[in-house]
Specification:
Elements (H helix, E strand, L loop, with lengths): L13 H12 L10 H9 L4 H8 L4 H7 L10 H14 L1 H10 L17 H17 L5 E4 L3 E4 L4 E4 L3 E4 L4 E7 L11 H22 L6 E2 L2 E7 L6 E7 L1 H13 L3 H6 L14 H9 L16 H10 L8 H6 L6 H8 L9 H22 L2
Length: 374
């Protein structure tokens, strides 16, 4: 199978692929959009073919998880969603005057705000590309509110909608990411900033594709993160360098096996139609696609609980974390690890086996000393 975006076997016609993905999703089910947050999660776990296929086919993973009996706890609360929308509206009020002030624009009333209205995501992506080209040659500040960007990921294009993109007079494009978590004393929660940076890196990657065919354009590798200041609702901004996240995202997305290759390897009868299939059929279909569960999935994927249960049932060491999996080498199950530690299996010359036996000996010695002291 192909392991890159640009190589591999002869591809099926795109219409055939779309038809096949629609069959997997369910003909009556509208495709669930693939957003930047999902792409960032895919980039963090490129070996998970299950997620690549489900996201590529537009399957609603939350509905699928519920049908499998393992409903997801992943997602944003309604309160947080409403708070985020209200804060974004405040930041963009008056034609984005407050936002442009955070960028150091002295006269924000002179900023151009092009109309990006068009029919469907493809039309909006084409209109955004045209607006970016026009703004780049205008020699003035422009604010694109909720532009639409297209990025091909393992086959079908994903349509991405950043909060805003600012075009500078010199032709530079800057992504703006607006979040409702607070920035206290000039800094915010590191985990949340990291997640925002990974998400923004996906937007930068998509923008680079447009800039490559736009004369005089360049994409900034730092983004403007806008958050509430301290415990108020006053917007404040921080410039975040996303070069590291961009490099990782570009490399990891390129490693994703193409969706048509994954779909071609599926047995007959596989379907993720939650309306037409029984829980048993859905379970069999999901298990037909290899997964790569890790504890980090719990914060990024709706199917994480289901995959965790299966990993635990199989005794897979991946359930203990990627770092543990890396240390254990060829020992892939908890049973094999315990057997190696007890000296019942494993090559004594294997560093992982030797370390496990040494750890078991130290544990037994400590227990003996503790018992003697009682």
């Amino acid at each position: 199978m192909s392991e890159s975006l640009g190589s591999g076997p002869v591809r099926r016609p795109q219409t055939t692929l779309r038809h096949r993905l629609a069959e997997l999703r369910g003909p009556a089910s509208a495709p669930h959009p693939l957003d930047a947050r999902a792409l960032a999660a895919l980039a963090a776990n490129p070996g998970c073919r299950r997620r690549a296929l489900l996201d590529g086919a537009g399957v609603d993973k939350a509905a699928l998880a519920s049908a499998l009996g393992a409903p997801s706890g992943f997602g944003q609360s309604q309160f947080a969603f409403m708070r985020g929308n209200a804060f974004e509206a405040k930041v963009k009020a008056d034609g984005g005057a407050e936002l442009m002030r955070l960028l150091g624009v002295a006269e924000p009333e002179d900023v151009r705000v092009p109309d990006l209205t068009a029919a469907g995501p493809q039309g909006r992506a084409a209109r955004t590309a045209l607006a970016l080209r026009e703004a780049t040659g205008a020699g003035a500040w422009s604010l694109l509110d909720h532009p639409m960007l297209a990025l091909e990921v393992a086959g079908p294009p994903a349509y991405l909608e950043p909060d805003a993109v600012v075009v500078h007079p010199d032709g530079r494009w800057t992504v703006v990411e607006i979040k409702s978590f607070p920035m206290i004393d000039g800094s915010a929660d590191a985990a949340k900033v990291g997640a925002a940076a990974r998400q923004a890196a996906v937007y930068v990657l998509a923008l680079e594709r447009v800039a490559a065919v736009t004369e005089g354009a360049s994409v900034a590798h730092s983004v403007l993160l806008v958050c509430p200041k301290d415990f108020s609702n006053q917007p404040t901004g921080s410039v975040v360098d996303v070069r590291k996240q961009l490099s990782v995202t570009r490399r990891q997305l390129a490693r994703l096996t193409r969706v048509e290759d994954i779909a071609a390897a599926l047995p007959e009868g596989v379907s993720f139609d939650v309306e037409a299939c029984s829980p048993e059929q859905l379970t069999a279909s999901v298990e037909a696609v290899p997964h790569a569960y890790a504890p980090e999935c719990l914060a990024a994927c709706e199917l994480a609980f289901h995959c965790r249960d299966r990993a635990r049932e199989a005794g897979a060491v991946e359930a203990l974390g990627r770092s543990v999996r890396g240390e254990l080498g060829g020992l892939t199950t908890v049973g094999a690890v315990l057997a190696a530690a007890r000296g019942e299996a494993g090559d004594p010359d294997d560093p992982a086996v030797a370390a496990l036996r040494r750890a078991a000996a130290l544990r037994a010695e400590s227990l003996q000393e503790a018992a003697a002291c009682r």
